[in-house]
Design a protein that fits this description.
Elements: H1 9-16, H2 22-36, E1 42-44, E2 50-52, H3 54-62, H4 74-81, E3 90-92, E4 104-106, H5 111-126, H6 135-138, E5 139-143, E6 146-149, E7 163-168, E8 173-180, E9 183-189, E10 195-201, H7 216-222, E11 227-228, H8 233-237
Parallel strand pairs: 5-8
Antiparallel strand pairs: 1-2, 3-4, 5-6, 7-8, 9-10, 10-11
Length: 249
């Protein structure tokens, strides 16, 4: 993008649903190595319970550092990251003089790491959630009895496509997103008189469960698809959903 010197609508669309987890790039490898180094693959939780965490090491090692609905390891990392002490995460803290390469080197020698890992593994297993579960199986909203998988992640993870769901382990994970990406738009111009625009209302347009627009755009959001906004007459006439109603006295 820098070489081209400009952004396109397609660039914006890709960025919205890239679902990269920057904290995963920074920390997941260190977490996996530190996990694998734990004696006997075990760690002690905050309540004194000894937990076998060996499976978590492999899950963190192969996770692709994304928060797509099919990502395996994203949920484990999210729940673990919430437990780590934010005031002493890094051996090299953030520096305004080197903002691109700092912070770095997770401080996995802190005893809080093993405790957080044990608590996270115990929490997920206690809820019947596999450590390598697909994110979308446990991050969803319910519309008309249907579970609709939701991509994205919490702001603390650095994910562009922010979602802040409610965690309820007994109900199956992260349910009913309260805040985050809502009205999304990618708009640009291609030299014509009309803007090129793609939009999405993640929670859909209608509160009426009987309306066809109760969950249609939420399903699109789950599939990382967009609505084409039609500004010009030629675009409106080209819409396959066009319906013309003539009113007269």
């Amino acid at each position: 993008m820098a070489k081209r010197g400009r952004l396109t609508v397609q660039d914006l669309r890709r960025q919205q649903f890239a679902n990269r987890v920057p904290t995963g790039h920074l920390a997941a490898s260190d977490l996996a190595k530190a996990c694998a180094a734990l004696p006997g693959g075990r760690a002690t939780g905050s309540e004194g319970e000894v937990v076998d965490v060996s499976q978590a090491c492999g899950v963190l090692a192969v996770w692709d550092h994304t928060a797509n609905t099919g990502s395996r390891g994203a949920l484990l990392f999210d729940r673990l990251w919430r437990r780590l002490p934010t005031d002493r995460l890094w051996k090299v803290p953030f520096s305004a003089a080197d903002p691109v390469r700092t912070p770095n080197t997770l401080d996995t020698g802190d005893p809080a790491f093993a405790t957080a890992l044990a608590d996270t593994v115990a929490e997920l297993r206690g809820a019947g959630i596999a450590l390598d579960a697909r994110l979308g199986d446990h991050q969803y909203v319910v519309r008309g009895g249907e579970h609709i998988a939701i991509p994205g992640g919490a702001s603390r993870l650095g994910v562009w496509n922010v979602v802040q769901p409610t965690w309820n382990a007994t109900s199956g994970g992260c349910t009913e997103v309260g805040t985050g990406s809502s009205h999304i738009q990618a708009v640009g111009w291609n030299g014509s008189r009309c803007p090129v625009a793609r939009t999405l209302l993640t929670y859909s347009q209608s509160e009426n469960p009987d309306s066809p627009h109760f969950s249609d755009q939420t399903r699109l959001y789950s599939r990382e698809k967009w609505v084409t906004a039609r500004f010009c007459e030629k675009d409106i006439l080209a819409s396959p959903a066009l319906r013309v109603v003539r009113v007269h006295s």
